[in-house]
Task: inverse folding
């Protein structure tokens, strides 16, 4: 059975620290929105260009776009088992 863990919390509460540890311990991939957005921007993908346009204006990237980027990552081979 495929397992997914989601950690939510305010900035600097330890989400990254805990998820990195669990990822290593359980063998799950670690997926975080900040890294995904930076990767899409670096690749200059269509989603990355749109995200960058919001970030450059000091605005939040729309949830629909972030969701699309996350869905693309979760559909990848490295996430197929959880």
Result:
């Amino acid at each position: 059975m495929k397992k997914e863990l989601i950690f939510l919390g305010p900035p600097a509460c330890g989400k990254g620290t805990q998820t990195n540890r669990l990822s290593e311990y359980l063998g799950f991939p670690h997926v975080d929105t900040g890294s995904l957005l930076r990767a899409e921007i670096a690749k200059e993908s269509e989603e990355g260009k749109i995200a960058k346009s919001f970030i450059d204006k000091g605005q939040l990237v729309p949830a629909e776009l972030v969701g699309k980027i996350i869905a693309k990552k979760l559909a990848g081979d490295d996430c197929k088992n959880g």
